[in-house]
Amino acid sequence: MDAEMGRKVAKEKEMREWCVALPKVELHAHLNGSVRNSTLLELAKQLADKGIIVFEDVKDVIMKNGRSLPECFKLFDLFHILTTEHDTVTRIAKEVVEDFAAENVVYLEIRTTPKNNEAKGMTKRSYMDAVIKGLKAVEAVDVVLFDSNSRTNDTLACTPTIEFDGDTMKKRIYVRLLLSIDRRETTSAALDTVNLALELKDQGVIGIDLSGNPVVGEWETYLPALQHAKELGIPITIHCGEVANRKEIQAVLDFCPQRLGHVCCLNDAEWKKLKSLMIPVEICLTSNVMTGGAPSLELHHFADLYNAKHPLSLCTDDCGLFSTSLSNEYYLVAATFGLTKPELFHLAQEAVHFIFADENVKKSLKEVFKHAEKRFDDVV
């Protein structure tokens, strides 16, 4: 029995390491929810020293893995306080990119809500400037931030090289930004966010996201801004079906954005419509189970969509908040649904088709996966 357990542990370790080595594409990652626990702890201590928060109220939650939903909301409150400082936003953005790159994410779309805070002298533009400054400060890897159709691809910061089967390659990550419309915002504020996305299109901003508390706000409030984005040719992804709001789910499907996030609480007719529209879905396994959108990993709608050959990509949502990683999400798919290594590789590879960056970036990423095939002996 001990020998059998040892083989099982070794097999799990090998699969987890394989999932880390696998090149991956991340399309649904919230900046503030991806903060390192160590950074949260350090910044929380600083806030406590200033008398802004009580450190003991958040210390245990920060240090805990497998947080409950109420504990997650407590951290959300902390995120909102932290991100009122430009320097903190810059630091978080830098570290988030470094962390995704460290687990071989080769393309990353980060979404964040531009914030106004008059007391801190923060505008939506200055907030985004702080985010972009963080991306440019990354030194651990090469960051490619700009689309080649708007300006020359800039490789930011020279890095050490890594070797694959004798081939020397620079470790590189393509990073793009999505501006999130928060469901608490007014129509005017939502339109401001879309216009800012247009203004920053040469700085790596390539899309619009609708997110926030799913029980707050009305679809009609954000529709003018989303239509404006569509008219401008800005790609759109929408959080859909986090709660069973029949009217809004139908409206979102009718709007037909380029991608959808979560899609947990759909009824049979809505599932049928989603599949007929073939809108790519950003799947967030751990997040959906922890927030109650899916009853369990085993009963997650990933299996139904995957078996139906629906376009989808595995994502983290909030890797810091939910104590996960994109590598872990791939491992969970293998362990829960029995996907083989070739199937996991194909799943990661297919996500390239759903990115919002231009065709030149897609071509580069396809080359990354083509090169990776030579390194993965068990992928054919």
UniProtKB/TrEMBL annotation:
CDD domains for this protein: ADA_AMPD (cd00443)
Q: Extract the GO molecular function terms from the UniProt entry.
A: adenosine deaminase activity; metal ion binding
In terms of SUPFAM superfamilies, this protein maps to: Metallo-dependent hydrolases
Q: What's one Pfam family here?
A: A_deaminase
Note the Gene3D superfamilies from the entry: Metal-dependent hydrolases
Q: Which domain of life is it from?
A: Eukaryota
- What are the recorded Gene Ontology BP terms? adenosine catabolic process; inosine biosynthetic process; nucleotide metabolic process
User: Signal sequence span per UniProt?
Assistant: none
Keyword annotations of the record: Hydrolase, Metal-binding, Nucleotide metabolism, Zinc
Q: InterPro entries given for it?
A: A_deaminase_dom, Ado/ade_deaminase, Metal_Hydrolase
Q: Give all residue intervals belonging to the Adenosine deaminase domain.
A: 23-367
Q: Which cofactor does it need?
A: Zn(2+)
- Which reaction(s) are listed as its catalytic activity? N(6)-methyl-AMP + H2O + H(+) = IMP + methylamine
State the family it belongs to: Belongs to the metallo-dependent hydrolases superfamily. Adenosine and AMP deaminases family.
The entry's protein name is: Adenosine deaminase domain-containing protein
Q: Native species of this protein?
A: Setaria viridis (Green bristlegrass)
